[in-house]
User: Which sequence fits this backbone?
């Protein structure tokens, strides 16, 4: 461990405050804050001083939805825990929560152990796990209690992907009832997969094989229907619900209605739904395959409703659902059949910058940026105030952010292990300059100074919005 670091002269931005303050870091944690150029701040002494004049000092991002090394569609996500967490650091994200996968016929424990083995000793930043529950039975339900006790406090279920991850309404209800008792949070992929499979079969029979048909068969109404059904099942179970990657305005309306009724229902969206659309899926020469993910990209008019949901707090979190597949050799598996294109986009490196652009563009405020990208995901998944804020006692996960630097997003310069960028050529204002993870410099003035194995596993408490 290094000793003390002081960050001088920056604008410290958290979800609740903006203050020109110096930040003292000691033994990997925030030790103190004091208004800049006051005697209290000038009394801070340290071995390392970082000048943040004219810059923002923000908490490291918390990306609560990533898939490193995920097996999908006969291949694997192209980022390992090593490459993916290094890219996260480059993008100002200092904590990821990835998804361990239970395979049908296997225990939750086997899945969790397999993911621990993939991640341990390989991560550049801190990480936690959610558990994908693919096989609900009496043993699984008992295991859920044990996992909550040891810090895996959220469980993902799928109303989509029959034959792979799919759970029927009875399995979902049982898992929700269990989480109502043990304090866990059910995360739902809300799309009617049974109906979608019918539409896929019909589209392919008509010869509609291009990537754009992926968006047409996975209808917004089937996202809204599944969102509504998940909410009602959670209500029957007396359980909280977190709906992942909300993309359709009709689904936002379902969440807003439930929240207006006072139900403990939460929603997440992702940068791809805020910045991309079906126009991308329709790009010629199979280029649209780069944008195949589920839930799918929607027509542009959905974007305004998602931004509105983020402003009104009907949506609380922006995560990436980072699940990269290379265009060459992976996305190409679906040439001639859109249903065989691996679902997922790269994005862990772009989220903080894209959301800062949203501040520049007037969609959200600076504090809301930090709220949806750092503080709320940390609270939602039981890591606050250790993660997600800058306050005495918190982990010193701190980003020095230059709000005036200009950049052009490109696969040529990104650090994700994937051969394209979903935002190729996009001009952004704002850029990460220096990143500390528990006080250690991982990015130093745009150079990588971290190492695999610095990141440690972070057990989590239960959702902090339910206490």
Assistant:
């Amino acid at each position: 461990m290094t000793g003390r670091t002081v960050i001088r002269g920056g604008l410290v931005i958290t979800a609740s405050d903006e203050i020109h303050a110096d930040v003292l870091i000691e033994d990997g944690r925030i030790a103190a804050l004091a208004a800049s150029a006051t005697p209290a701040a000038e009394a801070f002494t340290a071995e390392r001083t970082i000048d943040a004049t004219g810059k923002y000092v923000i908490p490291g991002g918390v990306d609560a939805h990533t898939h490193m090394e995920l097996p999908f569609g006969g291949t694997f996500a192209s980022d390992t825990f090593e490459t993916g967490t290094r890219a996260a650091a480059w993008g100002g994200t200092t904590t990821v929560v990835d998804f361990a996968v239970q395979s049908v016929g296997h225990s939750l424990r086997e899945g969790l152990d397999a993911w621990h083995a993939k991640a341990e000793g390989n991560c550049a930043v801190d990480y936690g796990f959610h558990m994908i529950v693919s096989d609900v039975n009496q043993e699984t339900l008992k295991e859920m209690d044990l996992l909550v006790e040891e810090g895996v406090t959220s469980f993902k279920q799928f109303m989509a992907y029959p034959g792979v991850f799919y759970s029927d309404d009875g399995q979902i209800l049982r898992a929700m009832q269990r989480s109502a008792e043990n304090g866990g949070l059910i995360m739902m992929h809300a799309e009617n997969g049974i109906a979608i499979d019918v539409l896929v079969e019909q589209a392919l029979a008509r010869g509609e094989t291009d990537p754009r048909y992926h968006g047409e068969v996975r209808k917004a109404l089937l996202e809204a229907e599944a969102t509504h059904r998940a909410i009602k099942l959670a209500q029957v179970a007396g359980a909280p619900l977190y709906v992942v990657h909300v993309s359709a305005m009709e689904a936002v309306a379902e969440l807003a209605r439930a929240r207006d009724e006072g139900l403990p229902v939460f929603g997440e969206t992702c940068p791809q739904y805020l910045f991309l659309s079906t126009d991308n899926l329709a790009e010629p020469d199979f280029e649209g395959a780069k944008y195949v993910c589920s839930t799918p990209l929607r027509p542009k008019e959905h974007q305004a409703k998602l931004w509105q949901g983020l402003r009104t707090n009907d949506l609380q979190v922006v995560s990436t659902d980072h699940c990269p597949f290379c265009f060459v050799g992976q996305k190409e598996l679906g040439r001639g059949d859109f249903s065989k294109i691996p679902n997922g986009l790269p994005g862990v490196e772009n989220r903080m910058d894209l959301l800062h652009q949203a501040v520049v563009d007037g969609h959200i405020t600076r504090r809301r940026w930090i709220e949806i990208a750092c503080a709320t995901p940390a609270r939602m998944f039981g890591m606050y105030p250790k993660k997600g804020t800058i306050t005495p006692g918190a982990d010193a996960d701190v980003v020095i952010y230059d709000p005036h630097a200009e950049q052009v997003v490109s696969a040529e310069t990104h650090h994700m292990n994937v051969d394209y960028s979903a935002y190729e050529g996009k001009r952004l204002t704002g850029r990460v300059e220096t990143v500390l993870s528990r006080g250690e410099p991982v990015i130093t003035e745009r150079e990588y100074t971290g190492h695999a194995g610095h990141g440690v596993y972070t057990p989590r408490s239960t959702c902090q919005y339910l206490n």
Observations:
- Residues 220-237 form the longest helix (18 residues).
